[in-house]
Amino acid sequence: MRLRFVILPLIAVIAAMAADPTARAQESGANRQGVQLKFAVIDMDRIVKEAKARAEIERQLDELRQKVLAEAREEEEKLRQANMELARQRSLLSPEAHEQKRREFNEQMAAAQRRVQASRIAIAKAEQEAIKTFQRALGDVIAEVAQKHQITLLLRRREVVVSPESLDIASEVLARLDEALPAVKVRVDWSSGQ
User: Fold this and answer.
1) DSSP letters spanning 56-115
2) What whole-number distance in Å separates Cα of residue 22 and Cα of residue 5?
3) At a CB cut-off of 8 Å and minimum separation 6, what does 177 contact?
4) Average pLDDT, the chain
5) Between 2 and 116, where is the model more confident?
6) What is residue 41's three-state secondary structure?
7) Residue 168 near residue 156, CB atoms below 8 Å
8) Cα–Cα distance between 98 and 171 in angstroms, integer?
9) Which residues lie below 8 Å from residue 18, measured CB to CB, with a gap of 6+?
C-alpha cells in the first residue's frame, strides 16, 4: 500500500513532464544550468531475452549442466552396481568384513555426492561471472546510447504505463550490444568447488 502512495505521485509528475518534452527541472540546480529533460524508455526484459551473448551463455550453461547430469547418472549406476555386489557378498563375508565394505561404499557414495555438488557450485559461479560480463557490457552500451541521444532520464519499460514507441531505445541498444559482445565464454573453474 505504501508503495502505491509513492508510485502514483511519481507517475503523475512524470506524465506532467512528459506532456512537455522541453520541461525543465524546477527546483534543482539543473534548472539553473539549463539542462533539458529528455526521456527515453528501455525494455530490459527484451534485451536480456534477445541478446546474442545472453543466448550463448544459456546454451553453454545447458551443455555444462547436461554434462554434469550425465556424469552423475554414470556415477549413480556404478554405485548401484557396487551396492548390488555388496549385497551379494553379504553371505560370503564375515560380519566385520561386510561392515568394512559397507563403510567403504558409504564413503564412495558421499564422495560422489560431494563431486556433483562441487560441479554445480562451479557452474553457478561461472554463470555469475558470465552474467556480470554481460551486464557490464550492457551498461556500457546503454550509457553510450544515452549519451549519443543526450538522454537525461531513462526509465525501464515495465515501470512505464504508457509511452510512445519512439521513446524506446531497446532496439538500438540491442543492436549495439550484439555488435560489441556477440558471445561470452562461460569459464568453469572445476577445482574451485573441490
Assistant:
1) HHHHHHHHHHHHHHHHHHHHHHHHHHHHHHHHHHTTTS-HHHHHHHHHHHHHHHHHHHHH
2) 27
3) 47, 51, 53, 137, 138, 141
4) 85
5) 116
6) strand
7) no
8) 67
9) 39, 163
Single-letter amino acid code for the residue at 15: A
pLDDT at position 14:
54
CB 184 within 8 A of CB 48: no
Alpha carbons 154 and 169: distance in angstroms, whole number: 9
In sequence order, what DSSP letters do the residues of 112-157 get, joined into one string? HHHHHHHHHHHHHHHHHHHHHHHHHHHHHHHHHHHHHTT-SEEEEG
Please write the tens of the pLDDT for every residue from 69-123: 999 999 999 999 999 988 888 888 888 988 998 999 999 999 999 999 999 999 9
> pLDDT tens digits for 133-189?
999 999 999 999 999 999 999 999 999 888 888 899 999 999 999 999 999 999 999
The grid cell for 30 is 539543473
Contact 82, 112 (CB under 8 A): no
